[in-house]
Amino acid sequence: MSDTSERAEAACHALTIRPESATLADRCGGTRAVTITMFSFNTLRVSLSWPRAAVVGALVFCGADAFQRQFIPPPAQNLFHLKRPKTHRVLRPEPGVFRGVLGESHFTINSRGIRGPEMPPRASAYRILCLGDSVTECLYLDDNETWPALIMQRLNQEEKMPRVWVGNVGQSGYSCFHHLRFLKVSDLIKEVDCVVLMAGSVDFAYGISGDLQTFPKAGPKKSKSWIETFFKEVRGKFRKKKSLMVEDLKGEVYKARRKERMDGVKCNELPDLTGPLKLYRQRLQEIVTLCRQNGVRPILVSSAFVCREGLPPEDESMMWGGQLADGRFLGVQAISKGISSYNKVTAEVAREMKVELVDASPLNGQPDLFYDGSHLNEEGCRRLAGMVADCFLARRNGNRWQPIQPENRS
C-alpha cells in the first residue's frame, strides 16, 4: 500500500484487531502438523551437527510449505470484508477514552464471517446486511449495542411481521472502493433481501490524501503460505514503531492518534475533491445497480460527524484523522465541509436512482453522541438505529417488509 493509502486509513478508521491470517497451527490443519515439525527438530538437534541440521530444517520447512500449498487450503479463503468465522473477542475500552461507551464489549463473529447471529433460512426471515466502515463495524461497542443489532431488535418487536435478521460486515478503513469489490465477489449478495450502506467518511479520507484507489490489473494472485505468513508476523512483532492503524483491546491507540492531530499543523483549505467525488458517485451508482441486478433492496445512509462551527476545545480534542497528503491536518470547519460534500453526492445518487435514503444529519454536531469525530457511542447508535428502523417501518407493505412502491429497476 502506498504511503498515502496508509495515511488515509489511519486518518479515519483504523483496521480491526482481527488476525489477517490463521495461526501456524490453523494453517497446518491443527496441532498435529506443528507437533510433527517440532518432533523433527528435536530429533535433528540430537543426531545432526548444526550446519546439517540447518540444511535439513530448511528442507523440512520447504516440504511442509509445498504440502500446505498443494493439499491444505487456507481456512476461510473469502475473508475479504469479513472476519474470521466463529471468533470472539472481549474489549475493555477505557471510559475516559471512549465517551459514552460503558463496560466491556463482546465482539462475536458467526460461521459466515459476519458480526451477528447465524443467518436463518431465507423463508424464515427478512435478511438485511449492513455494509460500511468502522462506524458500521462498531468495534468498541458490545454486540447488542451496535446500530445494526439495534435495528434487528427494534424491527423484531413488531407483531404480525416476519422475523428480521441483520448482519454486520462493516470494516474499518474500507470505502466504496472496497464495498463494491465485496459485492462483486461475495455470494452474500445473493442470500440477502436488503443491503444498508453507510458510506462517505472513509471515501473523504482517501480523497484528501490523494489516493484515488484504482483497481489493480486483473491477473492471477499468488496465495501466501503459512511459512510466509509466519515470518511476516514474527517480523511485525519486532518493529520499533507501533502502528496507529491497529486497534488494541483497550483503545489506548486513540490517545496517540489524538495527540498526533493536536500536535500537527492545521489547515482550513480543502484540496480539490472533483476527481474523488466523481469516483465516489460512480461507485455508489455501481453498488446500487449491482444490488438491483441481484434482486436486493439498497438503502443508503449518509455519514454523521461531530464537526461544527464553535465546537468546544474539549470536544475537538477527542477528534483524530483528517490528514492531508502533505501531513497537515484539516481543521474542524474544513472536515465538516468535506464530508458534507460526500453526503451531498449520496443524496443526489439516492434521488436520481430512486433509492431510499436515511439522512443521518440530525446527529451531526452533537458531541454526546460520538466518542471521536465520526464514531457513534451507545446513545448515538440508538439514535441512528431508530432512524434506519423508521425507514423500514414507513415502507412496509401490510405484513411484509418490502417497500410499498416498487423500486425503479432501470
Brief summary:
The protein has 2 domains: 3-19 and 78-214 and 229-395, SGNH hydrolase (Rossmann fold); 24-71. The protein has 14 helices and 9 strands.
Secondary structure layout plus pairing:
Blueprint: H1 3-12, H2 24-27, H3 31-47, H4 50-71, E1 88-91, E2 105-108, E3 126-132, H5 134-137, H6 147-155, E4 164-168, H7 176-185, E5 194-198, H8 201-209, H9 226-237, H10 253-263, E6 266-267, H11 274-293, E7 297-301, H12 313-316, E8 329-330, H13 332-352, E9 356-358, H14 378-395
Parallel strand pairs: 3-4, 3-5, 5-7, 6-8, 7-9
Antiparallel strand pairs: 1-2
Helix pairs in contact: 1-8, 3-4, 6-14, 7-11, 8-11, 11-13
Mind explaining what this structure looks like?
The protein is α/β, with parallel strands linked by helices. The chain folds into 2 domains: 3-19 and 78-214 and 229-395, Rossmann fold; 24-71. The chain is 42% helix and 9% strand. It has helices at residues 3-12, 24-27, 31-47, 50-71, 134-137, 147-155, 176-185, 201-209, 226-237, 253-263, 274-293, 313-316, 332-352, 378-395, and strands at 88-91, 105-108, 126-132, 164-168, 194-198, 266-267, 297-301, 329-330, 356-358. α7 runs parallel beside α11 (274-293). The longest helix has 22 residues, at 50-71. The two termini are 37 Å apart. Residues 5-47, 67-77, 215-224, 236-242 and 406-410 have low confidence and may be disordered.
